Each structure stands twice: as structure tokens, then as C-alpha cells.
From TrEMBL:
InterPro entries: ARL15, P-loop_NTPase, SRP_receptor_beta_su. The keyword Membrane applies. The gene is EOG090X0C7N. The lineage of its organism: Eukaryota, Metazoa, Ecdysozoa, Arthropoda, Crustacea. Its main location: endoplasmic reticulum. One of its GO terms (cellular component) is endoplasmic reticulum membrane. GO terms for molecular function: GTP binding. Belongs to the SRP receptor beta subunit family. It comes from Ceriodaphnia reticulata. This is Signal recognition particle receptor subunit beta. It is found in: Endoplasmic reticulum membrane.
Length: 255
């Protein structure tokens, strides 16, 4: 070990000395070469990053059970409604988008026992995530909805790939359904509470330990979707009434 570090030290010193010994012209050549090399590396990095983004064509439909994901999936892929039952397996279909490459839509089951496993399988290919919620039963389910949404948004793969996120306020045909703006502020309040409890729990469990999930928003400021590093939008829909116009517009913009 000692021998190795001595060797490195020798190499470093001799390199430094050799650079210092270069003439002014030679130094310029070295700097010029380093600059070109840096630009070359940046191009490679941008190329790889863009390729990664372009190759991600997946759209994950996620949300609690009964929020309407499978009905939305069948409207999008088969252009018709189907009678759906609680899904225990994912549905995958290809959606053609006008003047753009097709998207691969994945309907992830909402059941608590299986949803994480299916999401883990598809999350790295997600170009977009549609979080579907039932706008009528939200009062009752707010905690569960916020918890699931929090888990998805703070997932390390999601934070690093930064797919676009649409929170789809479904079942708007119900007269007592809440609109997207009200839902956004309800979720922001709930996510704020959740973030505080989660941060406290993490601090209590492992002081200075490794945090697996990403901190959402700005510390010392109430939670707001606008503060996230990924783009989150809200829209209304009713799969029952075949009103998926906002979703289709969003899918076109994401594709
Ligand atoms: N009124 C109304 N009912 C809807 C709407 N969308 C879906 N539903 C109904 O809600 C129920 C659940 O829909 P699914 O599509 O099976 O729900 P899901 O999200 O796939 O549920 P899981 O597979 O359990 O995760 C079905 O009876 C649908 O017909 C809607 O926009 N309005
Ligand atoms: Mg389903």
C-alpha cells in the first residue's frame, strides 16, 4: 500500500515537473488539447443522455386501486371500454401518436402488494408517469394517495431520469368530484405533512445514514409541486364518459 502511494506521488511530482518544464508554446498546445478533450467529453455525455431519453418510450399508469387505470388503458389502446376487475398483473400496449414515435403504455396494478414490483420493472423506461386518482373519493383516500405519490416522486430512478408527470383527476363525471386545482392544494398540504413525518422518521432511525429516497421540494419551505426538479401537471378526465382529451394532449406533448 505504502509502495503504491509512493509510486503515485513520484508520478505526480514528475508529471508536474514535466509540465513546468514545458515552453510557453508547448503549454498552449497542452491547454488547447485539454479544452478540445473537455468539449469532446461533453458531446459524448450529451449524446448518451439524449439517447437514453429518446429510447425511453414508456408511459406508466399508476394510482390506487379503482382509480380507473385499466379503463383508461383500454380506451387509449383498444378505443373502447371494457369491464375491468382489480388488476393483479400489468397491461402493456402500444399507442400510436400522430407524427411522433409510438409510446408503450403500461397499466400498473394499484394493489398495495404488487404495485411496487411492477413499477420497479418499468420505471427506468418511463418517459412519462400518469398518476390516476379518483376525484370523488379523494377526501377519504387522501393519505393513501399522497403516500403513493410521494413514494413515486421520491424514487431515486424517477428523480434521476426525471420523466414528466401528469396527475390525472379521473371520474369527473361524478357531480361531487373535486377539480384539479382543489386537488392540487389538497395534495400539497398532505405531502407537506408526509414529508415532515418521513424526514423525522429518517433522522430518528439513522442519523447521518444513507437516504435512499430523494427529498422532495425545498427544505424550510412548504411543499409545492412547482419546486420539484421534474415537471408535474394536473388535468381532469372521465374515462367513463370517454373524456380523455387532456390526457391525449399531454401524451402528444410528452411523445
Ligand atoms: N364514474 C366513473 N367510473 C369510472 C371512471 N373510470 C373508471 N371507472 C370505474 O371505476 C372502476 C375501477 O376502474 P378500473 O379501471 O378497473 O380501476 P384500476 O385503477 O385499474 O384498479 P386496479 O386494477 O385495482 O388498480 C370500474 O368500475 C370503472 O368502470 C370514471 O371516469 N368515472
Ligand atoms: Mg386495473
Amino acid at each position: 500500500m505504502l509502495h503504491r502511494s509512493a509510486m503515485w506521488q513520484h508520478l505526480f511530482v514528475s508529471r508536474e515537473q514535466s509540465i513546468l518544464c514545458l515552453s510557453y508554446h508547448q503549454q498552449l498546445v497542452v491547454i488547447n488539447f485539454l479544452c478540445r478533450f473537455y468539449v469532446f467529453l461533453s458531446f459524448i455525455f450529451i449524446f448518451v443522455w439524449r439517447r437514453g431519453r429518446v429510447s425511453r418510450r414508456g408511459i406508466c399508469l399508476v394510482g390506487l386501486c379503482e382509480s380507473g387505470k385499466t379503463l383508461i388503458f383500454s380506451q387509449l389502446i383498444y378505443k373502447k371500454a371494457i369491464e375491468s376487475f382489480t388488476s393483479l398483473k400489468e397491461n402493456v400496449g402500444v399507442l400510436d401518436i400522430e407524427n411522433k414515435a409510438p409510446l408503450k403504455v403500461v397499466d400498473v396494478p394499484g394493489h398495495e402488494r404488487v404495485r411496487q414490483r411492477f413499477f420497479d420493472t418499468y420505471k427506468s423506461t418511463a418517459r412519462g408517469i400518469v398518476f390516476v386518482l379518483d376525484s370523488f373519493s379523494l377526501n377519504k383516500d387522501i393519505r393513501d394517495v399522497a403516500e403513493y405519490l410521494y413514494t413515486i416522486l421520491s424514487d431515486p430512478v424517477v428523480s434521476s431520469n426525471r420523466p414528466q408527470v401528469l396527475i390525472l383527476c379521473n371520474k369527473q363525471d361524478n357531480t361531487l368530484a373535486k377539480g384539479p386545482q382543489v386537488i392540487q392544494s389538497m395534495l400539497e398540504k398532505e405531502m407537506n405533512l408526509l414529508r415532515n413525518t418521513q424526514t423525522n422518521q429518517l433522522e430518528a432511525v439513522a442519523e447521518g445514514g444513507n437516504k435512499k429516497s430523494t427529498y422532495l421540494g425545498h427544505e424550510g419551505k412548504n411543499f409545492e409541486f412547482a419546486d420539484l426538479s421534474l415537471r408535474v401537471e394536473f388535468a381532469a378526465s372521465s374515462a367513463q364518459s370517454e373524456d380523455l382529451e387532456n390526457l391525449n394532449k399531454w401524451l402528444h406533448s410528452v411523445a
